[in-house]
Sequence to fold (246 residues):
Amino acid sequence: MPRYKCIISYDGSGFSGYQVQPNKRTVQSVLESVLTKMHKGEAVKVFASGRTDAGVHAKGQVIHFDSPLQIPEEKWERALNSMLPEDISVLSAVSVDDSFHARFDAKGKEYRYVLHLSSKRDPFQRNFAYQYPYALNLNAMEQASKFFLGTHDFTSFCAAKTEVEDKVRTIRLIDFTCENQRLTIRFVGNGFLYNMVRILVGTLLEVGSGERSPEDIPIILAHKDRTLSGKTAPGHGLYLWEVFYE
Fold:
């Protein structure tokens, strides 16, 4: 049966996360509902590169599904977008080998976290950036971020209920861009654990506000204890930006 790979973007504000949950609106449930309609009531399962939490956005989430429908490859994008709600968009759809898997074939991901550095609320950013009204020492945050680079056990920087046993990940890049009171922190790595980026951001904010020093980071990493790291930053500032494959 033909397999299709799609790059999708979504505004996470109106979803209870990506994964199907009983009686909740999720990205996966909306996608599968549309595909089921297209297949005359036959259920179609969608597989993603990974889950996103409630409120988290995606610029470049990757999914795959199988379909027997005789729709030309170039028409899948338009067909799906004509039935999807306005807060999800299919950016591309291509046929792939039936061995392709959106999650297991992913070699890396880029996430971005956006902060609105102002004491004044901006109603037009409230769902898309975390308002942070306090002064930040960006130099200290950049110094701290260097300790995250490379391969480490990130047990201290993932949710306590993280299910995977292997918590070793490699972060290749963390950079900071500040423009018009918007601070964007970019993370590129081979993979990220549950809540990992949001906890890294929460910890970096505590460094930036002077509650911690950059030199605390290697100590927290070494102890492998979630209680030693910072708060989990809110979901609405986070974007799954891109998924990398071979």
Observations:
- The chain has two domains: 3-96, 108-244.
